[in-house]
């Protein structure tokens, strides 16, 4: 399991290490400098007499830069340190390493202007750390622009300067690093929004922080999904199994003009191993369902030609809910008030696990249905637009800080939420598990319907809701990754995923 930290948690860990564990800040800074120097040496290992330019800001990030300079100087590298603050502004532990650099006669310049130099082989960015508040100061613009424009490799210390450690946002710019060496634990913002493109290769350095197992940090526990879990969860079925034991899934999805959503969700459930599926269909559209769902069953419900579900269908649907091991509700259901009433009734009275997606989430809009009225365990799978509707917040706000607002939703919701951002993140109790697979080609119609089918199938097969959500998201993204060379980003369709899912899953079905 790979742990991640918010910038507030990074500060807490610093405090705990120094104040509770008694680890001197100078020692941590020295360890950081050694780790950065090692990364720098590897980056220039194929060059003869490489030149290294270290830019230090104010505070501990700059101190890490001075500590790095000492080690590189010890190894005989040609280095030039540029300190943005003047000598009198360098305080705390950073001043210790600054003075040592002076004692070793390391060449140091100061100021907001980069001195005229030939392009260095490597720039070490030690300007701003994880604690910054955006926007960055305007006097740093020209320095960051210079770093991004010169033809040099760039190594960022802890986080690229200008990148927010919580949400991956930049305002208005951030350093483009080839590699980022981050101290102790990767930061949440390095995986979100602009984070991956700004960080480059990420190296996590052990500088002596205590294990998080021994520290109680405030806030949510953030981790990355571990691919080893897929091998653990996807063992081959027992040799004596049969279709009823392999999981029964009921799908309530589709309406006039959106039958494809029901078909995609159903086929995804079967492709991920569900033994039996029943897909509810408005009778006027049943022929479409029957034509495309060959291996699954359908439940035709008289709709008077309307093409959508209503509350009058509840009794027949309830019978099939009793039959099912998991229920998928929402893909392509439409927004008719009668359909929303039906979904609300099911949520109030059912006790079976429900995966609630897309239009199924409309019952919560403007607090029409209270979470306190739900008796059944549910997994919700909103994209950011749907999250903005659930929270009644402007979409732009959600897009700027998706994990903050997902956290807000989870304060009043005790189930599991899969937030379909980049990366998709599973929220469960006090945990948030970020996915490690997938790409932007999944930003197309129908891919969410496939995901809901996959998660529902895994729940029906007996996985815990938490495992089913994480595994569904991972296999969904991994399948898209395997299709990238064939379909590219723009050419990928949701239906392409269906035939590829078995090829993805079989890799993990090892004895």
Describe what this molecule looks like in 3D.
The protein is elongated. 38% of the residues lie in helices and 16% in strands. It has helices spanning 7-20, 25-43, 60-74, 92-103, 141-149, 195-199, 228-233, 259-271, 286-292, 314-323, 337-349, 384-391, 395-400, 402-410, 447-460, 465-487, 494-506, and strands at residues 2-5, 51-56, 78-83, 108-110, 122-126, 153-157, 179-183, 186-187, 201-205, 221-224, 248-252, 276-282, 297-301, 326-329, 354-356, 378-380, 416-419, 425-428, 431-434. The chain folds into two domains: 2-219, YjeF N-terminal domain (Rossmann fold, 3-Layer(aba) Sandwich), CATH 3.40.50; 228-506, 3-Layer(aba) Sandwich (UDP-N-acetylmuramoyl-L-alanine:D-glutamate ligase), CATH 3.40.1190.20. The longest helix has 23 residues, at 465-487. The protein has 17 helices and 19 strands. Helix 2 crosses helix 3 (60-74), helix 2 (25-43) crosses helix 4 (92-103) and helix 16 crosses helix 17. The protein is of the alpha/beta class and 511 residues long. Strands 8-1-10-19-18-17-16-15-14-11-12-13 form a twelve-stranded mixed sheet, with helices on both faces. A seven-stranded parallel sheet has the order 4-3-2-5-6-7-9, with helices on one face.
